[in-house]
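User: Can you help me understand a structure? I only have the sequence.
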Amino acid sequence: MHQGDGTASLTAGRGDIFTLSLHAERNFPERKARSSLDVPLADGTDDAGYMAALENVLPRILAEFAPHIVLYQAGVDPHRDDRLGRLALSDAGLQLRDRFVIGSARRSGIPIASALGGGYGANPSEVAGRHARSMLAMAQENSLHPLPAA
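Assistant: Let's start by predicting it. Here is the structure, written out as tokens:
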């Protein structure tokens, strides 16, 4: 839900690293760092809007930049019930996003590592459930597209 400003700042000027950030345009930080590609989303962007933006950029980046590995920050703070987020993804939308990212990388033959993040809901059990469902969705998608043995 917020720009990956730390990663963008840390890797600024590195031609061998591509950073992609889909984030709420009007959320923290006020002054954005510069990612390789920033995709600012309007407040209230829902599952369909988020997926349209992601589907528009990720396949092209994977094809053109051809990374050796993808590092994916799978935050659950774009959820519509997140206290700090400004986006409106549903549980199903988060899982669709995760499956799309994992599947896109794996179908391209690219290893992927992910980390969970974010999630600022009023009920910690609900946030934990979103994290668990995200992990399960990624594991299921990963099993559908195994990389060839080295």
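Now, to help you interpret it: The longest helix spans residues 124-144. The mean pLDDT is 89. Let me know which part you'd like to focus on.
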